[in-house]
Amino acid sequence: MLRNILLKSVLEISKFFPKKNHPFNNSKNWIFDLNYSTHEFESAPWLEKLFSKNFDFESLKDKKILDIWCWGWWKWVYFALKYSCLVYWIDTSKNFISQANSIAKEKWVLDNCFFTLWDAHKMDFWDDFFDLILLHDVIEHIPDTAQLLRESFRVLKPGGKILINFAPYYEIFWHHLWDTLPIPWLHVFFSDKFLIDLYKLSVKNLPDKEKRIDLRIWKNNKWNEAFTYLNKITKRKFQKILNNFIKSDKFLINYQKQYFLKNLNFLSKIPFLDELRARLWVIILEKK
């Protein structure tokens, strides 16, 4: 009884926060199109700008590029159109791969795009194959981040670069539920089990509720409901993984920058709370 009251109370509190501009809520075919494709295409210029001061996108012409996961192949349709690069995109969803091929065909770049159903932890590509690898909003989703970087190192050419941008787990809205629950740091205060019930309650009156639930909530290896698409990687955990690769002399950091919430610099002096102010980590790694 008390739990149900708390669930309903938190849901009511969420109504006081402004709704976020989430791709799920903006899709023209929102009942059927719960992915980030259109959003990725429209935000591709932002991604280009994010790295452009330290990476020359004009150099991509006729180069082989690998994009991993992220549910947003449209950004590479944008880059294939603009720079005539050869794009390889891998995902674990047959549906997304099928949609990606259809869009590439529609935009007349199918000859430049190769969308394949593969696991990023063990890719069936030759060694030293790619000129560039993009890990855009994927670090926080891949189950084994260290293995992802090992495979990326293997398939990347010497001198090739990996462009990374992601938000650490304790970022203000990194519970990934802000399509219906725009409460800051919601995942800091409640357990996953509570958040799962809360999310189900928040979408119960939406016509696409089943699709949203199926996309967000999967069974883990113990057959319990969980947010299995998030690995909960923090700043500290990723820094440790990154340090190991730098020490192994495989990569060098070509560029990195961290973005933080403004006016919260005082949190940097408190170890755990420092995680709460992180917004985005941008890194360019280069294979030696």
Annotation keywords:
288 residues; two-stranded antiparallel ribbon; Rossmann fold; single chain; globular; 2 domains; 9 strands; alpha/beta; 36% helix; 7-stranded mixed sheet; 20% strand; 10 helices
Walk me through what this model shows:
The structure is a single chain. With 288 residues, the chain is of the alpha/beta class. The protein has two domains: 2-31 and 177-226, no CATH class; 56-168 and 233-287, Rossmann fold (3-Layer(aba) Sandwich). Helices cover 36% and strands 20% of the residues. The protein contains ten helices and nine strands. The protein has helices at residues 2-14, 23-26, 37-52, 74-83, 94-106, 145-155, 186-189, 192-203, 209-216, 235-247, and strands at 64-68, 86-91, 113-117, 130-136, 156-166, 218-219, 225-226, 251-260, 278-287. The strands form two sheets. It has a seven-stranded mixed beta sheet with strand order 3-2-1-4-5-9-8, with helices on both faces. It has a two-stranded antiparallel sheet with strand order 6-7. Strand 6 and strand 7 form a beta hairpin. Helix 1 (2-14) crosses helix 8 (192-203) and helix 3 packs across helix 4. The N and C termini lie far apart (59 Å).
Topology:
Elements: H1 2-14, H2 23-26, H3 37-52, E1 64-68, H4 74-83, E2 86-91, H5 94-106, E3 113-117, E4 130-136, H6 145-155, E5 156-166, H7 186-189, H8 192-203, H9 209-216, E6 218-219, E7 225-226, H10 235-247, E8 251-260, E9 278-287
Parallel strand pairs: 1-2, 1-4, 2-3, 4-5
Antiparallel strand pairs: 5-9, 6-7, 8-9
Helix pairs in contact: 1-8, 3-4
**Count of strand segments:** 9
Report how far apart the termini are. 59 Å
CATH secondary-structure class of the largest domain: Alpha Beta
Q: What is the H-and-E element order?
A: HHHEHEHEEHEHHHEEHEE
Sequence stretches where pLDDT stays below 50 over 5 or more residues: none
Mean pLDDT: 88
Overall structural domain count: 2
Structural class: alpha/beta
How many separate helices?
A: 10
Name the strands of the widest sheet in spatial order.
3-2-1-4-5-9-8
> Can you say what the CATH homologous superfamily of the largest domain is?
Vaccinia Virus protein VP39
How much of the sequence lies in strands comes to 15-25%
Q: Give the overall shape, derived from the CA principal axes.
A: globular
Q: What is the second-level CATH architecture of the largest domain?
A: 3-Layer(aba) Sandwich
Rg (C-alpha, Å): 20 Å
| CATH topology call of the largest domain | Rossmann fold
Largest sheet: 7 strands, mixed
